[in-house]
Design a protein that fits this description.
By secondary structure, the chain is α+β, with helices and mostly antiparallel strands. The chain has helices spanning about 1-55, 60-70, 85-95, 105-115, 120-130, 145-155, 165-175, 195-205, 215-230, 245-260, 275-280, 295-310; strands at about 75-80, 80, 185-190, 190-195, 320-325, 330-335, 335-340, 340-345, 350-355, 360, 370, 375, 380-390, 390-400.
Length: about 400
């Protein structure tokens, strides 16, 4: 009898381990998904950091999403100006001449200044929009500016600065309500627009009394139905005709909208069982570190906000956001040398000098040579000096002049 019990114990232990493992699978899966979202979010931040350090302009909305992700944009410095200072400078330019700035950009500036705690600036920007709103509810008589302005105003909690009745009238009147392929979409001069449709739906949900307003709820339902018709077999959701949209932007807007409505975006499944979430995880990131079809800052920003919504967390403060090569631009004479620095920058704004550990190269080795950051001019011309460390790349421009 004892032998039978002894033989059963290993079997029971094995069964227990299997059952325990099955119970842990959902937890492990959730952790893996969260890690995947964080990894992708980090890559989006790194892309935008590199773009800024290469001289690409980032706007107020880019800075807003980066701040949500935990990035210290005060430490992102290009040509002696931080990204935060550049955005604040653009806000003052808007306040001096509001007529020269679209309602959309004013609203994005409001969004970021409100998030940063610049209450005086955000209030002034809100007043600009309140005064600009026309009787028909438009700001610029342009859905590509008006609708995102309403959505951003609402996100900032400032929707009360505009006339809600006029806003409702405008948002409902710009929806396609004639039977056909575009029914339910919001359309501009070139036909139905996916981003405008998604943003209009979100803007409507923020209006006072929206939950009990039958007309608003029908508009939302019709808009969502049109959006879902654009879902592709790979899970992405985007317009393909007459000209294809960027799949990332439309898919991201889909996830933003479903999240705002309290709907799990994983419930939108294609004929092959793929969801918008699947596409953002599996196909949004390109091999070169960029995102989407356009491979630009907007793609990276929309991707970043998506991953923040899906992961509900931000990368760790010690995560690296980029590699800065200092100085960004420099000039030396033939035969002279210049010492560069390679600095890893982290989310929390701290830096680490990796000049000695980085791999250095000159794009044109006939113009300059470089070893451990020490560049030497060889002939007159211009070249890029690059450093690579830990999968990060930074670069700077070196001009070599002839000796007189």
């Amino acid at each position: 009898m004892m032998r039978k019990v002894a033989r059963r114990l290993p079997v029971l232990a094995l069964v227990f381990c299997i059952l325990s493992g099955l119970l842990l699978l959902p937890v492990l899966s959730e952790r893996a998904e969260a890690q995947s979202y964080n990894d992708l979010a980090l890559k989006a931040v790194q892309f935008n950091h590199q773009a800024y350090m290469n001289g690409t302009q980032l706007d107020a909305y880019d800075a807003y999403v980066l701040t949500l992700a935990g990035a210290n944009v005060s430490s992102w410095v290009y040509q002696s100006k931080s990204l935060k200072d550049a955005v604040i400078e653009s806000v003052y330019t808007t306040l001096e001449n509001p007529a020269g700035v679209s309602a959309k950009q004013v609203a994005y500036q409001l969004l970021v200044t409100d998030h940063w705690g610049y209450d005086n600036l955000s209030d002034q920007l809100a007043n600009i929009l309140g005064e600009r709103q026309q009787a028909d509810g438009s700001f610029d008589n342009n859905i590509y500016s008006d609708i995102p302005a309403y959505e951003a105003l609402a996100r900032a909690g400032k929707i009360t600065v505009v006339n809600a009745t006029c806003a409702r009238q405008y948002l409902l009147s710009t929806q396609c309500t004639v039977a056909g392929e575009t029914y339910g979409a919001w359309a501009g001069p070139w036909g139905p627009d996916f981003v405008s449709t998604a943003q209009a739906i979100r803007a409507l949900t923020y209006l006072p009394g929206a939950a009990g307003d039958a007309q608003i709820q029908k508009a939302i339902t019709d808009g969502l139905a049109w959006m879902q018709k654009q879902q592709q077999v790979d899970g992405s959701v985007y317009v393909t005709t007459p000209w294809p949209d960027d799949p990332l932007i439309d898919t991201a807007e889909t996830i933003f909208t479903l999240k705002a409505l309290g709907t799990d975006p994983a419930t939108w499944k294609s004929s092959q069982g793929k969801t918008p979430v699947d596409w953002m995880v599996e196909k949004a990131l390109n091999d070169d570190g960029s995102f989407g079809a356009c491979k630009n800052v907007m793609d990276a920003t929309w991707a970043l906000y998506t991953y923040l919504l899906l992961g509900n967390s931000i990368p760790t403060p010690s995560a690296p956001v980029g590699l800065n090569v200092i100085p960004v631009t420099a000039t030396v004479s033939v035969g002279d040398t210049l010492q560069y620095q390679a600095m890893v920058q982290y989310f929390n704004g701290l830096n680490s000098d990796v000049t000695g550990e980085a791999l250095w190269t000159a794009a044109d080795e006939t113009v300059a040579s470089v070893y451990r950051g020490l560049a030497k001019g060889l002939r007159a011309g211009q070249t890029m000096i690059s450093a690579v460390y830990g999968g990060l790349t930074g670069s700077a421009t070196l001009t070599v002049t002839a000796v007189n």
